[in-house]
Design a protein that fits this description.
Helix content: 10-25%
Largest sheet: 5 strands, mixed
Shape: globular
Number of domains: 1
CATH architecture: 2-Layer Sandwich
Number of strands: 7
Number of helices: 2
Structural class: alpha/beta
Radius of gyration: 16 Å
CATH class: Alpha Beta
CATH topology: 60s Ribosomal Protein L30, Chain: A
Distance between the termini: 21 Å
Strand content: 25-35%
Length: 150
Amino acid sequence: MPSATLRIRSSGAAFKLRPGESITFVLPVTPRTKKNSRVHAKVRGRTVPLPSGAYKKMARDVLVWAQEKVIKGRWAWWLDLQQPLNCAAIFYRDANRGDAVGYYQALADALEAAGIVSDDKWITQWDGSRLAKDADRPRIEVTLTALDGE
């Protein structure tokens, strides 16, 4: 498997992968979907669901992980990826609940909030992603692979 190399982009992105290059990491968080709360709020005259406390904790834990591993550790600064990506994620859940799309949306939003991808629009494929159960050690194993095209 090709390894990632660091290059500064003229667009300002801190990191760019060549097509086919990957970054793999394990998020030590309990996977949660974003839309599993029954709490709603009125926004501009519409009622919208609010993210659950469990999702907010997962997103916060991803951010803390990113600050410890990405900024201070292995990768030295924000990845801030700005290129088409495949995200192959295995969601090891503590219980068999939720749907795959909900988990994909939650992970994409958390990766954006943590600065790993600049915008979740760059995750254009989820090939290789699936739901699994591991009640003893919930986590998300993530592989981001650069795709051809800008």
